[in-house]
User: Fold these one by one.
Assistant:
Number 1:
Amino acid sequence: MTDTVQTAVIGVTGYAGAELARLLLHHPRLKGKPPVFAGRLDEKEAARGGTPLIEIHPHLGGNNGASGLRMEPFTWELLTRWNVDVLFLATPHEQSRAWAPAALERGMRVIDLSGAWRLTEAANRAVYAFEDDGSAQAVATQAKAVYGMPELYRSQIAGAELIANPGCYPTSVILALKPLVAAGLLDLGAGIIADSKSGVSGAGKAPTAKTHFMYAADNLSAYGVFSHRHTGEMLEQIGLAAGQLVFTPHLLPIPRGILSTIYVRFHEAQTRQSIAKIYQEFFAGSPMVRIYEKTLPQIQYVVRTNYNDIGFQLDASGRRAVIVSCLDNLLKGAAGQAVQNMNVVLGWGESEGLE
Amino acid sequence: MTDTVQTAVIGVTGYAGAELARLLLHHPRLKGKPPVFAGRLDEKEAARGGTPLIEIHPHLGGNNGASGLRMEPFTWELLTRWNVDVLFLATPHEQSRAWAPAALERGMRVIDLSGAWRLTEAANRAVYAFEDDGSAQAVATQAKAVYGMPELYRSQIAGAELIANPGCYPTSVILALKPLVAAGLLDLGAGIIADSKSGVSGAGKAPTAKTHFMYAADNLSAYGVFSHRHTGEMLEQIGLAAGQLVFTPHLLPIPRGILSTIYVRFHEAQTRQSIAKIYQEFFAGSPMVRIYEKTLPQIQYVVRTNYNDIGFQLDASGRRAVIVSCLDNLLKGAAGQAVQNMNVVLGWGESEGLE
Amino acid sequence: MTDTVQTAVIGVTGYAGAELARLLLHHPRLKGKPPVFAGRLDEKEAARGGTPLIEIHPHLGGNNGASGLRMEPFTWELLTRWNVDVLFLATPHEQSRAWAPAALERGMRVIDLSGAWRLTEAANRAVYAFEDDGSAQAVATQAKAVYGMPELYRSQIAGAELIANPGCYPTSVILALKPLVAAGLLDLGAGIIADSKSGVSGAGKAPTAKTHFMYAADNLSAYGVFSHRHTGEMLEQIGLAAGQLVFTPHLLPIPRGILSTIYVRFHEAQTRQSIAKIYQEFFAGSPMVRIYEKTLPQIQYVVRTNYNDIGFQLDASGRRAVIVSCLDNLLKGAAGQAVQNMNVVLGWGESEGLE
Amino acid sequence: MTDTVQTAVIGVTGYAGAELARLLLHHPRLKGKPPVFAGRLDEKEAARGGTPLIEIHPHLGGNNGASGLRMEPFTWELLTRWNVDVLFLATPHEQSRAWAPAALERGMRVIDLSGAWRLTEAANRAVYAFEDDGSAQAVATQAKAVYGMPELYRSQIAGAELIANPGCYPTSVILALKPLVAAGLLDLGAGIIADSKSGVSGAGKAPTAKTHFMYAADNLSAYGVFSHRHTGEMLEQIGLAAGQLVFTPHLLPIPRGILSTIYVRFHEAQTRQSIAKIYQEFFAGSPMVRIYEKTLPQIQYVVRTNYNDIGFQLDASGRRAVIVSCLDNLLKGAAGQAVQNMNVVLGWGESEGLE
């Protein structure tokens, strides 16, 4: 299948779209067929058809022929004519709700980077207020969706039609907690705290009061306390009841990177060795997770990589731990994980094009 | 006059307006009469009448009673009723063109922070494309305007009705060059280069692609090469012909501060002592300019002060010099210099409320 | 007493020392008598006697005559001769252990910014490994020490001989938690999490691998997990048993500011109003604490102020809360609080010289 | 030759060394033979023999097997036994003076990143004060050295034994000016100004007062005015006499990247087209230089690439131009250019392993 795969990206104008473009242009399995790019499908973006990719993202210039690529004036006919096999949607949630079914119908595989198809429980989806929620089409599409975290669902992703690529914060928190919950070690009644900090690219490319340099620089602020919409995603994937996890995001004065500091209690005393073993076994065969057995990861170790780094520290009693989990929000937290999913879907090496 | 002075600020929502508010609230001569504040006079701002000042600028909270102040729904009647003596316009150029005459007519003194009244030559004003340029009212108003740089025009400012507060870049360049030009030392035919770098607050509070954290952080960019509208202001005040000065501004990834690196040639060889003497004599009696005789100033030395720091280095021949001139673009480059002008206008100590 | 108070600062070369110098030079009650400054008393610093203060801290230049001040080559005789009333020690812990008693003996009041005299329990002091711990002099000196947090110990501070100025992290955490603990609201068995983030000035002026721009910029890292020496100070002052509080500090890529995100559980459901009332009543009469009833504070609101801002958010059940507490680590977290303590000791207005 | 090339890096602990390690580990032509690494050869570094590479540079972990590599306790015997073909010296100038001849003697090709062998004129070398300057060995070694800028000396570099890899600032300035000087367009008598700004990685990994976050952040400072040792390198390579170029470096508050703003005068009026043509023709066949014909490059466009981007703007008369030249100081300004040189030396594609 390798030499016939044609990819396309809708929504290439944003930060995640730019990272996707960069990764796909360099992917060793896609060299013969450059991906096709289109902007978000509102009027303004549509008018951009024909815009050279390097005008929108000048840093892509000179990279293996990106200089010749242009934004295409999107139509479904074009995608069909180009025989697109894998369609990446780096689009707003509402657009992904409408477009994923349309693409599936045309026989494409879809990797959706939005929150449109991540949540299986209606209560958790409520924060998105999808207009089509509960419709026959939405129910059928949701049934096809696989949560795109290879470390948890590798076998289901292989061959899936629709991948719901995880959120950036949830990736860092789920990968840190799932092994401990799966092993039954955590005292869930005591509650889990996930105190997360993210760089500004996580807030999107639209210029707003909060993405203004004067607001973000030399500052730190908490937001979405007890109300951030990524919470439901964490609960579902880790397997927690509402109220068992408190998640607080903060806006860091850096371009990219997430660090989550996570506080847990164990039923019984643990040791550094016992916890390291749990993680090592859980992530055996997962090339994109690195476990730190002695020190703690930092944002600078993961920026511009697709790794999720996890370290931890136990208190003297062995009953409490602080876990630190880091990733690059545009890579393992978005575009990198999307490519990782494509690799798994197509049976390629999971980290191809990601190192 | 001291205990009866009432000030007002129009355009308090921007960065310069916020600094003005802070300075006026703490000014020792204004303690009895808190200033009056209003936003810019477009519809959106007008609707803000009644908004507590600390909602717009939370960092002003707790400062000597700022917590009780509100944005007022502006009308000329209100200003008249409050007996405003000194009106600060931190407004867009076009608004200042209309409002300065209106305020002068009502007997207020005006300190305008925009570029509306800084330029005496029509050729230099052309970049602003003022619609009323050449009208009788505009000509009459311009005739009343004094360029608000106390180090050059202290006596004219004292008692003036309308002060055209200088631009941020021009302040740093004019103060560095005027003493040398006045002394006749510079070989103007050889040309002067002013390579200036400014923090992001200079780009204004409106969220734009260029003020987005992701654009400004970890970056440096030149802009307005050979075309920045501050050039004319420098030519007029230093006394240069077009083409004798090349000015290149750059956007620095810091909140505030300007550093201008200026390259000049002398007719004859100079010494460190001869140049230091020129500066010291020129700025004798100017409390807000500091001359460095041995080292060079840096942005960190002037941020959050009203000082303009000047240092220099000569080459081995004594025929060339590099001059470094620094200021805080929101203080000596805007609100601080406006307060300094108010002090001179009213006969108060020039640096009162500025240390 | 006002017009006869003479202050001195030992350890003026560091960041806290520089802030102290700035505050004391501008303090309205100290105008007649400029403070005396000396560096830390190791050989290198002693050699600095005579160094103008503005060579060490250029940003102090021009501030009300700081330009004439010099570092003095310290001896006790000099301090005695100058009749120093209040001695600030911005010195390393070990030096403060030796020097506070020496100064008390000579009749000076001492405000010590180090950790030397903050802890009353030997178990908590163990992390400092003071060589003189348990000696008669140390016991006697500790007995005189008052923990310098006016919001908790105003009456004890008034007239005290020795003030142990609080740590930066503890100030932000204690002020946020003490009112709730005092009111008996917290379920201490459930544990409290304090996830704190500090700017780089908190790491001191010594150039190290961790204060290198390349390490700190664009990064975030946790450190001292379960082992930071500020933990004991929090336990003692809040009134918690070991294990009831988990404290995790992080290094932020900003110059100054601390934000602590604190997670608590209540015995019974609370409301926004009930919690606001607790805070407002506790801090009535405390001018340097600001309570946010609707929004959350951010670092940018407190930087370069002596305020500690506190905001909070309750979950839907009213049984859990996230509290956000911010301060400037060099002001309310160090030099500002030291001046606040001096004001209380001497019976002056608590916020004089701090606004 | 491809499949037998063995590389080694001395001085892998610094920033340039780390970039070299990363590039060589990923170089498509070196996959069979991982490079050998050693630290700088002082006592402290030597003791580091055996240290895993990822302990020194954690961000290299997980990259194609870097995790197994260790710092070797260097001896010449080891290098000989490993049959090292190409030796990279990322060492201090003095060490490179001694070690380049030693390596050449043993039949290795040497690519030296220091300033040891860049300068042919004794007057320009004086700033380095090499102890061995003028010795027979130094003269013989210098005679073998080729200045490692493929855009200027591609044919001489092919097959050279010793490459003097250019300095970071000089690369940005020489590439911008050489085409114009070679075309005879510049009025050299009018003088050229190169106002350069560099990120902090250019100042090296040693923690110093100037690399402290608190010094560099939120700041900008000029240094080495009229005295920076990169000046001689520019004069020699561009072909200028002393005094025809003024070079002023500044320290930017960013991790990496250099932007040079260069001011020139032409003998005759030029057009955008005429200048673009000069550049395009000069750099035809040079894959690592990008010419901007409409806009200006920025640091963010070149960071983490090996490109040198050049743009320009003419004044209305066509007689003056401002040229903006950008690169990543650790890549095109150091390690990237070193790999580019290796590619040319060995007859490989010039940009292999650099995209």
Number 2:
Amino acid sequence: MKQSYNVAVVGATGAVGNEMITVLEGRNFPVKELRLLASANSAGKKLEYQRKDIVVQELTEKSFEGIEIALFSAGGDRSKQFAPAAVKAGAVVIDNSSAFRMDKDVPLVVPEVNAHAIARHKGIIANPNCSTIQMVVALDPLHRKAKIKRIVVSTYQSVAGAGQKGIDELANQIKALFSFQTAEKKMFPHQIAFNCIPQIDVFEPDGYTKEELKMVNETRKIMEDQSILVSPTAVRVPIFMSHSESVNVEFENDLSPEDAREILRNSPGVIVQDDPGKSVYPLAMNAAGEDAVFVGRIRRDNSVKHGLNLWIVSDNIRKGAALNAVQIAERLIGHS
Amino acid sequence: MKQSYNVAVVGATGAVGNEMITVLEGRNFPVKELRLLASANSAGKKLEYQRKDIVVQELTEKSFEGIEIALFSAGGDRSKQFAPAAVKAGAVVIDNSSAFRMDKDVPLVVPEVNAHAIARHKGIIANPNCSTIQMVVALDPLHRKAKIKRIVVSTYQSVAGAGQKGIDELANQIKALFSFQTAEKKMFPHQIAFNCIPQIDVFEPDGYTKEELKMVNETRKIMEDQSILVSPTAVRVPIFMSHSESVNVEFENDLSPEDAREILRNSPGVIVQDDPGKSVYPLAMNAAGEDAVFVGRIRRDNSVKHGLNLWIVSDNIRKGAALNAVQIAERLIGHS
């Protein structure tokens, strides 16, 4: 194992890119050089890492000389265009976009679930969709115990999922409405302030959004079980940080709420918050800035033979994106 | 049929009571005298009806002399205490609280679904829970066609469900947070601004809230089918008006999305908004102040034999409470 690595963050000025820098620093990732890359617009900006300013450079195909690990979070088009150059330069790419996730040659990894898949990489490892990551961290340990047949999930997703511009849009709309002005919209298909929008990403012909289909397909790939059925509804709600999920699971075998809690208490990356009589359950507000996937409201669903309902919450920028990518990098170098 | 009626609104100064007055006026309900009743605190206030001020009177057991229809929306305790006095005075009580809903002698009515049950009343008719009303208006027509076996529903409920104080709390919390002050909470178990709270009402020993169990029990009673299974998760979200619901339905028989849309287009009280490619689907923001139950995102759920997913939105104060109560009164007097 080497002592330290040359790391690039592609899309460094975005919400996820920024958080990647924070997570690399916070977890003492063994960085030799940190190279920050972004579009020409952002080149020249300075970002802080370990109390020093690093100047953001323009992303080009020549940006990756000497880079060993490249964390990409600059959108699918940029990943498709520049990831091959990074791989050619000798880097392993950990890509947060959806560009390569379903490519059979690309491992799709949540370290708590399928870290072993990292070894199969051919230069690119994909970081899953945020809604999927938190769901599989919570469900995989239960699947191993009682085998999941079917999942019905409805999400409550924060505007941070649309990046810094999504955060700004919610804030600006609320300020406008509270000043009796018109709320302008750019990022979301409708006003998000004081509204719930049952659309994230574009619609496919079957009536599901791409975001929803990610939850179907990525869940199966990460959990390595094509028999798992997922029926998703993805909804944007007017909160800044963290995604919440109402998850209904039908198992092959019986699993009591007590056993589920016990399993989850002993599962990596999970914190059980489940004392409803004292109003203790996971909350988006409390999950923001935290590493864990929080699970609560675990209760029997008596409408089906072996059913449970759960409420799963996590910081979508952190475990849902930046942290998961850095955790993959840690596994890659044998650091954790 | 009489020409006009003496009507009392109990809880006239609350969010629902106020809307009842608006709906009575807007629908030209044949009112002879409108008597507005509330707690001693609110007595003396004036509310407008047909451009005249009506002075709110203190609710006592003697308030109902001459009253023929009493619309109650002052909480379960007040209903239990004062509804018998109203009935004794000769009024028919239409009660918006949960006090009598599951009483076998009390019809629980959504006029589009089971108006016929009104005739069985013995002085009291119950108005169902808001989340349940909008769900059964949309699902009953589909049930009649393809028979519902099981419903998995997750709600996105506005703060208006907690009355004017709930609305004020969200507004005040946002104002405080945007001024870098602490958000105070009184009405909700946690901060609701920029948060999702998976608790509405108190918890029962099985881990479900009373709000959730209402959706189980009231649905069966209104749809008059004890075989319907309901698995609910009720969640408060930071929006002012309207409840949204992500509803997964398993049917006994096949029902295509096209047939479901066609049935719903011809169903009373329903408006289909379902052109996702153009980002047309029901939105809480647009439903506010409207009478209809809006249904969209109707799509096949391929994770089960005969499944559909739907997104159902309605104004919880209007169809979910005040309008439904007045519609019951209209049926009672044979006015509609």
Number 3:
Amino acid sequence: MATTKLKKIAVLCSGGDAPGMNAAIRSVIRTAAYYNIESYGVMRGYTGLISGDIVKMGPRSVSNIIDKGGTIIKTARCPEFLEERYQKKAVNNLKKKDIDGLVVIGGNGSFKGAHILSSKWKVRTVGGPGTIDNDLQGTDFTVGADTAVNTALGAIDKIRDTATSLERIYIVEVMGRDSDFIPLRVALSGGAEDVLVHDTEHKIDQMCEDIKKGRRKGKISWIIVVAEGIAGGHEVGRLIREGTGFDTRVVVLGHIQRGGSPTAYDRMLASRLGAAAIEALIAGETDKMAGIKGDDTVLVPFTVAVKPGRKQEKLDREIYKIIRIMAT
Amino acid sequence: MATTKLKKIAVLCSGGDAPGMNAAIRSVIRTAAYYNIESYGVMRGYTGLISGDIVKMGPRSVSNIIDKGGTIIKTARCPEFLEERYQKKAVNNLKKKDIDGLVVIGGNGSFKGAHILSSKWKVRTVGGPGTIDNDLQGTDFTVGADTAVNTALGAIDKIRDTATSLERIYIVEVMGRDSDFIPLRVALSGGAEDVLVHDTEHKIDQMCEDIKKGRRKGKISWIIVVAEGIAGGHEVGRLIREGTGFDTRVVVLGHIQRGGSPTAYDRMLASRLGAAAIEALIAGETDKMAGIKGDDTVLVPFTVAVKPGRKQEKLDREIYKIIRIMAT
Amino acid sequence: MATTKLKKIAVLCSGGDAPGMNAAIRSVIRTAAYYNIESYGVMRGYTGLISGDIVKMGPRSVSNIIDKGGTIIKTARCPEFLEERYQKKAVNNLKKKDIDGLVVIGGNGSFKGAHILSSKWKVRTVGGPGTIDNDLQGTDFTVGADTAVNTALGAIDKIRDTATSLERIYIVEVMGRDSDFIPLRVALSGGAEDVLVHDTEHKIDQMCEDIKKGRRKGKISWIIVVAEGIAGGHEVGRLIREGTGFDTRVVVLGHIQRGGSPTAYDRMLASRLGAAAIEALIAGETDKMAGIKGDDTVLVPFTVAVKPGRKQEKLDREIYKIIRIMAT
Amino acid sequence: MATTKLKKIAVLCSGGDAPGMNAAIRSVIRTAAYYNIESYGVMRGYTGLISGDIVKMGPRSVSNIIDKGGTIIKTARCPEFLEERYQKKAVNNLKKKDIDGLVVIGGNGSFKGAHILSSKWKVRTVGGPGTIDNDLQGTDFTVGADTAVNTALGAIDKIRDTATSLERIYIVEVMGRDSDFIPLRVALSGGAEDVLVHDTEHKIDQMCEDIKKGRRKGKISWIIVVAEGIAGGHEVGRLIREGTGFDTRVVVLGHIQRGGSPTAYDRMLASRLGAAAIEALIAGETDKMAGIKGDDTVLVPFTVAVKPGRKQEKLDREIYKIIRIMAT
């Protein structure tokens, strides 16, 4: 474990953006200033690390951004970073500026890069989980997930208004990658009649039967949430139309879910984890992500954080069960 | 012009739903009560008029709905109403309940039906413009248009967060039918770089040139608003990708734009026009829509209201010009 | 522990209202229906229990309420319920309708009544925590707290716009009773410069010194969150004005914080705890509140839930520390 | 009328801030750039004009601000500007930078200053109406008014949730100065039972009678909107409590109404008037405010714009009448 006193840190965002990244950047920069550590921002993730697009930042650079979506230092995906020659350029750029600590905010792919930097190139690196999909191990939540769920919920609430007035079947495709976090929570909190997630993908026939039975009993409108990657909202809409003979409308929420002002929870989480990341760097930690467990902040090795596999499986099953009970 | 004293009125919504329809219903029912006129609600538009699904309503039936999207008496499209035998059934259902005045809330198609009822069947009928497209003649605004623009704008604001962070081209398809009302106002207020509306449909080549030129000057993200019906957001996304070589993301807002709590303006407009419709019926008016001109409420013959053709052409041109100036 | 099979349940809300109460009612009623149990709603809390204002409800009674603030069965404070003769009337009213299970949604005071009903009168009673203050023991969160924090945050965000433009000191008084839950989380997520909570009440002098020092360094606007009950926003405004010589503006958010559409989190929590309450009643449980611990639902004796004392003290201290770090 | 070709313009905001000021600044700067005119921003209104705090701006300085409340160039009240020696300093500061056109965004007081600059000191000056109170003559709307009404409405909607659940009388004090624009529109769109505005100030006795009568008929909750400056919300609350014997709760919305992301309408208005102001300066106009009349932009002498007196009196009366009808 590195133990030299920390003098300068840099922060970068990588991968898809998530609401609350700005709050995390603000916390990183201001906590660094509090401990008399200089701060830099790396523009556009690993891309800027490679090209040397690294700018001086300070407490005033992050004024009035806690409530803003997106990230002021921008983010990007950077497949080149898997190549050693680019890693070397990145490490040299940090050395040139005497930066001895790095905070990486992002998800899965970002932490694979961060692991390379810390384990292979000995850059003291700590991560903060920033992804709407809540698919990182070792932390209860990732920054952006609560906002993304609430954003999708806002859309569902509007669709319900029109679904109830016009008597139709609405299919709403939400984001979520391999994790069912967003679709399950949106379906439960949105009062959707059903949800298509990974464990349930082959059940469209059953869904059509339910709808036909419900229609006979007088039920007139349905909202069905579909996780992207299961079948595609438009495809599900077609299958239900064919299977029931009823009209369907499809809404694909898409990138709306990545933006917007972060919720209180995401701003708090970002503020806590940004501070925890700097304090971990100061303590000489590296190759780890700062996360949340219950009321505590914890450190999790990057190699653990990026492991595949479902979190909250028991909770997901409970949520799914309640969605079905509520639809009765 | 009919002049018998009005004793009972009914209200119906027809066609696509629009935010503020509930505020209009509330105003119709409460204004009727104020003038000691009994009220009925017709469920599901002309469909309920034909089937006789007409329910007694009063001031308390419309409590706490002014802020709700959708319509508590539901709405529907009803092509059968063009057939005389169904019209006859509808008129008989009104007669059976001694209903001597009808308020129809809806758009183009709804007022064609309302014109048949008033001109051919002598049902005293006044309309209230309820459609998000603001495409009725003789009224500055229709109930729902201001809310729909603000809803689409909310989505654009979220997309801008992510567009600015990730540096991409976003294509956002908004509603609006043959009218360019929504796309032009969303593009201007959303700070979009460009907009594809009816007058501008063949300009994708020019757009690709602009983007390539902007990219050379360092510009990194674009938001382009597309009016549904021009080409389809996905089609435009494909053409721009092919024409520029840059990545595009497409968002189709769809039915989200029909729901949501109405804005202050739409609730006021709905409240004023609902009251104006009842006062017009009391005054013996029929075959007309209540609309707004400047600060005044006005009456416009249904036959005028449904005429095709652009409103606010001069304003639309000014808005388009400013969008282009702002993008420089 | 009671073990007769449950046939009919009633649900009531009591005390101050909280966003998500409707979602909880919906979950109670629909879960009961799922298990073939009849449902009743008691109007206006213990007041309606005493007067016998108890209405039949079913799955359709709770359609389209999951997103609505307030409570459709209304709530009230009912000091008379501490008198035995009123308790007897309440118990008789339940017996008359053969109601053998009761769900009470509310906070501290409500659960004291619920404890009397279950322990003294042997009414099988389970509670669901519904209060914006998150001041019940044995549950991580109470229904309404997340929404209240987000609502207050929305107001702070607007005030920051104007604070930054006009260069002033704003004092914002938020709710929270004896708990510091709301003020601490609002201050952190709102980026407030300082917060006055219970542990910090005698520090206005220090605050004035900080402001004067900041002003000398060029800082021009402050947002200071005050927990109601500490001193009163207007009083704090006066003290700071006198202590610094600078102009202050005071905003008292008040009852806005109790209303509004619940957040996704509060709707999920309400849905889970409503279902858990019915399942607990079915299992013969009584005299307990359903709560949340990590990912699990748990049962906590009413006598434990209502115990005074701080929850999350360690977390509160961490949040306070980060607020101070962020203000540097 | 001045006719020299315009080369450099400056823009300032003055007085209370209003949502949409940033959209107006953006439009001014970008329209200037479009016409190859250099732009400057004056910080803190006339204060910065006197002190020479004038910064170079360009199209990129105003990126991503169209959706932000407040004003990036800040605003202030500046009573010193009435003194000639300060005016002279201001004029010299403009001359030093060769600035030959000035856009002033603000309300009444701001335009008095602007009139002095243009008439006495021959600075080519055009104004854009930015005030939430919509109290300037010669323009249908001022930038910020639509947003302020919608913000206050959002608060009323939340209060209604709790008012309906808890059965109480809520008094909500809203902004609006001598104009009744905000209170009347908030009361109508918020479904308030009554409103206290300037023409109606001595009617609290009547209000108490209405409430007592309503309570006898079973009505249980009231929302009453009060215009600030009529009596003060707390005072009205006390009078109604004494006059009816019923409990009241008072909410004073205060400065929340000045902030927040501007509505689509305010962003459009700001964009149009910002462009119109620059085009007016180019055309050699001075001593005038750009305003809106129906679909057209117009120019109004500052001396006319600041005249006291009610606008939309007829509309105000209609709105008041409908509020009363809706409350029946």
